[in-house]
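User: Show me a protein chain along with its predicted structure.
Assistant: Here is one chain, sequence first, then structure tokens.
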Amino acid sequence: MQIQWSLKSFNELSVSELYKILRLRMEVFVIEQQCNYLDTDDNDQKAWHLCAWDQDNLVAYSRIFAPGTLYQEAVIGRIVNKQNIRKTGMGKALVNRSIAIVYQQFGHVPIRIGAQLYLKKFYESFGFVQKSDIYLEDKIEHIKMILP
């Protein structure tokens, strides 16, 4: 697998790239995790879109928001990778690159995520700290986490 990374604003995305982003998010969040929710939340237009491509296949993705856009902190969200590449280190690479982009674009600012509870230890390995009680989002336990 030869990964090529891209970072684009919403307006820079091609129709094909946007289609592949939405498809990956639906494959994982709607189909695999069985969450019936409106993924297109009118925030994509405000985000930076980080994509990991294996040739023409989108294998991992996150969206990144500047501080003050959604919350006081910068935000990394919709962190997702294809099922067939899990346990290969791609998830770690995606989160590391997402954090690095926040720092490059906006300076060394706090970063907020909404994490599925079962991934708490994974995100703690990057320095994220739990900042909320457990809450249900689409019938899945979540917590708010901050990377100070």
